[in-house]
Amino acid sequence: MSNHAILLIHCPDQPGLVAQVTEFVHKNRGNILNLDQHVDRLAGRFFMRIEWDLDGFLIPVDKIDDYFGTLIGQAHGMNWQLHLTRRRPRMVLFVSKASHCLYDLLQRHGTGEFDCEIPAIISNHEQLRYIAERFDIPFHYVPVTQATKAEQEQRTTILLRELGADFIVLARYMQILSDDFCAQWPHRIINIHHSFLPAFKGARPYHSAFERGVKLIGATSHYVTADLDEGPIIAQAVEPVSHHDAIDDLKRIGKDVEKRVLARAVYLQLRHLILPYGNRTIIFS
Amino acid sequence: MSNHAILLIHCPDQPGLVAQVTEFVHKNRGNILNLDQHVDRLAGRFFMRIEWDLDGFLIPVDKIDDYFGTLIGQAHGMNWQLHLTRRRPRMVLFVSKASHCLYDLLQRHGTGEFDCEIPAIISNHEQLRYIAERFDIPFHYVPVTQATKAEQEQRTTILLRELGADFIVLARYMQILSDDFCAQWPHRIINIHHSFLPAFKGARPYHSAFERGVKLIGATSHYVTADLDEGPIIAQAVEPVSHHDAIDDLKRIGKDVEKRVLARAVYLQLRHLILPYGNRTIIFS
Amino acid sequence: MSNHAILLIHCPDQPGLVAQVTEFVHKNRGNILNLDQHVDRLAGRFFMRIEWDLDGFLIPVDKIDDYFGTLIGQAHGMNWQLHLTRRRPRMVLFVSKASHCLYDLLQRHGTGEFDCEIPAIISNHEQLRYIAERFDIPFHYVPVTQATKAEQEQRTTILLRELGADFIVLARYMQILSDDFCAQWPHRIINIHHSFLPAFKGARPYHSAFERGVKLIGATSHYVTADLDEGPIIAQAVEPVSHHDAIDDLKRIGKDVEKRVLARAVYLQLRHLILPYGNRTIIFS
Amino acid sequence: MSNHAILLIHCPDQPGLVAQVTEFVHKNRGNILNLDQHVDRLAGRFFMRIEWDLDGFLIPVDKIDDYFGTLIGQAHGMNWQLHLTRRRPRMVLFVSKASHCLYDLLQRHGTGEFDCEIPAIISNHEQLRYIAERFDIPFHYVPVTQATKAEQEQRTTILLRELGADFIVLARYMQILSDDFCAQWPHRIINIHHSFLPAFKGARPYHSAFERGVKLIGATSHYVTADLDEGPIIAQAVEPVSHHDAIDDLKRIGKDVEKRVLARAVYLQLRHLILPYGNRTIIFS
């Protein structure tokens, strides 16, 4: 297991930011492994991701955040997050009835592609319990009705706390989460929408794509915000389709795109390569 | 130059259609070069493209349409078009100020990729006249204002008739054509829209794409109908973009996609590979 | 379950072939569902795939092959195969230690994407037995050494016969099959090679790709012939890579391409959409 | 016109490199606009590209290289190049008979996509002179035979010196350059090869691709070295093909890929985004 620190930073652009941050790492004997920075000139905003080896680093791990803030962050109006790679993140999956994304994520986890824990799968249906059992992952059935929604979200919130969840992946979870729930997990709920957003928002996008006669269909992974299908986009991909493809074919082809795009978002999240800002994301990869 | 006939057919689906059409060609000593058919089961609609060599074909060229209608087409409620490859189609280009699509089409024409005549370029601005001159193609300046629009469209209509135009390509022509004008050229005006429709309809799609933070940008070629950006889609493509790309980069990258997608539509049109039906297209390729 | 017949035909090109085949189907009250034909002008060769509904077809199912041969096939020197969709094909998977393709195929089978039986998984290692067990599919461990190879292939041949195998998929099976074995399963063994053939044949293609500094890596599914990595190609795909990607990243990215390309080949095989000819394939899709 | 400095650096990896380079820029009042660095752990090699604004920079432009070397570069065994954006690079095009890449580059130059001078087009044939004339660019006819090759390369070398050429683009130039000539322009000759290297090296790659029955065709832009088709790869792309595509179709489709891939390489070269190392390239984009 690696022992790295990763800092994700954004702040108003100003001269000398890169020099100061790199010097902070260097003076304290951290070896920089990756550094990527970006300036949005239009917005006058600076973005940076820096990863360094903690072996021999002079500042104790639990003080890094504090020192960085005091020495650099606060003075420059920085917004920063510190991540340590020696702690495996805990990812909870929400599913409904469609199995393809769930299977795909579990398979990638099983083959070592995702370096994380999956403490539980939560579903509003019982259908996919057998898959959870095949992969020896606890399955929680939390049925939702219009009437019980608020109560069930509370129950889910408690469960997530018990599970020590770091973030949530909606692997074709077909319930709309309340604004309150979304607000508790800012940039920590990843959804897969089965269209190339902003085209075909909402329900039944493959039907709409068929109707419109598009020549490519797509999928979009994004962070969930209170605005349905409007959160910051993490990844997108498309596949060509033709008149040969009926709606069922679009669904079949689309499943593959969904799996790929969701897996990419999860990978980026686990490697702390995503820096959301406003309604956009900087992807450091 | 080839001497082929191409029939594009659609009608209600019914048994025996392929057999009858192929027998019509075969009995009259036509050698079938390509045959492609498609059934839209949902709509119960049959679509076919058949291309055959006219050398030795028993029916005189100017009677084929008539014979086919009498012997087969009318009995089955067919909607058909006959095309003869020995006549080079005449394509007229409409442009405004952006040169990339115009250059690209002229270059492809110049290198023999497009088997057609380009009798003229029509523009509401003078800026691109020098390109027309470089390629020795007549350039017609037809300025348009809100007040003169109807009059100028009439003038254009007369010009197109004189030019013997078969179809029109809007190579980033930034005027909206009137419903009347569109109605005169059904499935004979091809437009390039600089977004992946139906996302980002209307003006300034790259700005909208930037705002939304999409990870792919695209272009769409489509037939023009009275409904702006809503006509049948012919071809679409996308390219990945990232946070590195400012709006000017999106425009730069987008230009390439636009050129490619428009060129593809023109190629398909010239080879009679497009069969529009309702708001969709069957692409026989 | 559908009740269709599919004929795959190739023969020297000659006038009237499409008309005769379609008439054969039509006169016997078969409704043509799909028809695709292709002529390789260079080789003077005709290729066709025709699918029709057997409900109400006048010729008994077990006589179709015979009648077609007598009435049409033999007279034109045709090479043809008849497939009936009401019989589910039996696909046997060969694996070694890498799990990603196996998982992917089983998941697609489990979600209904592949309409076939998987009577067994055969492996020269024990490592992936647990996956077979998770999916309730019999697992046969057939270890191979240089000394036992011939004997084990015989054992495998008997096993395949008992299983009623129609075709074999090498889902990252790392043994080279003998010429004799290959010859018994012409166009019935599908392999996935982890490079964009013909680049990087043989072992360790990701290492070679890294060394050469390519900007795209790929995968190729192909029929297995006695010539290693030289059989007819069924499907290929690529993904972009960059200097950020070390060999392990190429492997990770490559796994996704492999899964996709192998799944596509299996899908095409199950739908009888592949017509191999010489060292090439016609893909009717 | 921008007034930036760009440093491309590589050297053995060691702690503190990023900090020192950024501090060099920062202390001398340069505002860092872009910074990208990469470490090849296998090779233990550090790579960096840094771009900063020269307005207000304390070190005079003609001393930057010297100061950087003395203060940082030499001490760390760095290999570096300094580029200044206020000087427009001079790109000379070599062509033979195929016009598509030439047209494409000139069109991009004409629409402002390439920020450079094109002082001349050099060709071993007269065929494309008319295109040079259309774009008002001097055309030099330098015929080559086996016997005159050495002499003509000398003549070309003198011409290039007179033209003040910074780099050369072989836009489908069909002569093999001598080792001597290549050695004079290290990483300053860009070629487009019409295949996905290392597949189909050498002549007639589309014929070979057709023979092998590949499902994708590609193009590769690379720096030219004495080893034909073996130089460091800059960019690659592919397009799908099928059995519908005869060799002429492969050529037609391939032309588009060639244009795109060559234009990408030129763009990267002009922006100083390519850092070659050994037989690979780091692309900072």
TrEMBL record, chains A, B, C, D:
Any GO MF annotation of the entry: formyltetrahydrofolate deformylase activity
Pfam families named in the record: ACT, Formyl_trans_N
SUPFAM superfamilies, per database record: ACT-like, Formyltransferase
Pathway field: Purine metabolism; IMP biosynthesis via de novo pathway; formate from 10-formyl-5,6,7,8-tetrahydrofolate: step 1/1
Active site: D229
Task performed by this protein: Catalyzes the hydrolysis of 10-formyltetrahydrofolate (formyl-FH4) to formate and tetrahydrofolate (FH4).
Protein name from the UniProt record: Formyltetrahydrofolate deformylase
Organism: Neolewinella maritima
Underlying gene: purU
